[in-house]
């Protein structure tokens, strides 16, 4: 079964299939998805293949677009999620590889496998696009061109242009273009965002670059992106966080995504927990004291027997 979620500039394709254990490690044994189309690539039919000897492949007819950007994931029954490395050696295909022994060890009783492909369009690499990005990067780094000082909650300053902020954020637009006290201010206090995520947020508004150091950093930026209504940045941070869901952080991630209504990431965390036994749940950091009612209700609805 194929389901597709189209976003601005990209699509998330989920393919759910039932694996045949007897075919594992057998060369030539393969499962094929139904053909599907994507909003961003007119006139092209796509298809996914699952190879039992350790491969996931995306193909297309009449051709696979050169500008296509792909990230592949496998979500098994225990919902351990890891990007499959992508091989670009054949211009007609994109594929990733997985360890068959590890896959079999974590395959649940129902043998269900979910392949997820995030497909988008690569940024242009021509000289004009490159020059434009460099220009905005220089503008961010050249503080002499800034006309407002943003004061983070740790007291650090982040210099910025009101025009750039207002052009990217409806919140900043209201702040600087309407009759608010900040309209003519040279300094604006940002009371609930620290300097690290604030600088990341502002730089993203300038040149769309995003360098996240770890999950904690990504969550900090998520909060800031939500407050200042940068939806694409929220999606990018959510994708980063989803790659690192584990026993040590799943509950803290759930608190954030529940508060910010990030439904896809919320469901991924619930799926991660729902397949665990009672003993395995005890190994999840913070589980014994956990009491968020909305999370627990979702978990009970997903897998009642574990509680």
Summed up:
This protein is α+β, with helices and mostly antiparallel strands and 307 residues long. Helix content is 36%, strand content 25%. The radius of gyration is 22 Å and the shape is globular.
> How many beta-strand runs?
14
User: What count of structural domains?
Assistant: 3
Number of helical elements: 11
Series of H and E elements:
EEEEEEEEEEHEHEEHHEHHHHHHH
Q: What is the name of the CATH class of the largest domain?
A: Mainly Beta
* CATH topology category name of the largest domain: Apoptosis, Tumor Necrosis Factor Receptor Associated Protein 2, Chain A
Quick one: overall form? globular
* CATH architectural category of the largest domain: Sandwich
Largest sheet: 6 strands, antiparallel
The fraction of residues assigned to DSSP E strands is 25-35%
Structural class estimated from helices and strands: alpha+beta
Radius of gyration: 22 Å
Distance between the termini: 30 Å
Instruction: State the low-pLDDT regions, or none.
Output: 78-92, 125-129
Helix content: 25-40%
CATH superfamily of the largest domain, please?
Apoptosis, Tumor Necrosis Factor Receptor Associated Protein 2, Chain A
Mean pLDDT across the residues is 81
């Amino acid at each position: 079964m194929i389901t597709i979620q189209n976003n601005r500039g990209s699509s998330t394709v989920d393919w759910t299939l039932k694996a045949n254990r007897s075919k594992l490690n057998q060369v030539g044994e393969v499962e094929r998805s139904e053909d599907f189309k994507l909003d961003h690539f007119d006139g092209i039919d796509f298809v996914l293949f699952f190879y039992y000897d350790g491969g996931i492949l995306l193909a297309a007819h009449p051709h696979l677009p050169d500008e296509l950007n792909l990230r592949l994931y496998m979500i098994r029954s225990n919902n351990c999620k890891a990007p499959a490395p992508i091989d670009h050696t054949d211009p007609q295909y994109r594929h990733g590889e997985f360890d068959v022994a590890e896959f079999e060890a974590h395959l649940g009783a129902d043998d269900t496998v979910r392949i997820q492909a995030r497909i988008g369009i690569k940024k242009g690499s021509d000289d004009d696009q490159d020059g434009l990005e460099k220009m905005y990067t220089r503008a961010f780094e050249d503080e002499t061109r800034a006309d407002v000082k943003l004061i983070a909650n740790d007291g650090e300053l982040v210099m910025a242009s009101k025009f750039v902020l207002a052009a990217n954020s409806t919140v900043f637009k209201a702040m600087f273009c309407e009759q608010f006290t900040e309209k003519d201010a040279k300094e604006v206090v940002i009371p609930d965002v620290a300097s690290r995520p604030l600088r990341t947020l502002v730089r993203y508004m300038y040149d769309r670059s995003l360098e996240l150091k770890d999950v904690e950093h990504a969550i900090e930026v998520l909060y800031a992106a939500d407050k200042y209504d940068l939806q694409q940045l929220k999606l990018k941070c959510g994708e980063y966080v989803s790659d690192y869901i584990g026993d040590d952080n799943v509950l803290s991630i759930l608190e954030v995504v529940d508060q910010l209504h990030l439904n896809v990431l919320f469901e991924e965390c619930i799926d991660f927990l729902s397949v665990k036994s009672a003993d395995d749940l005890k190994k999840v950091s913070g589980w014994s004291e956990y009491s968020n009612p909305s999370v627990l209700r979702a978990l009970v609805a997903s897998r009642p027997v574990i509680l």
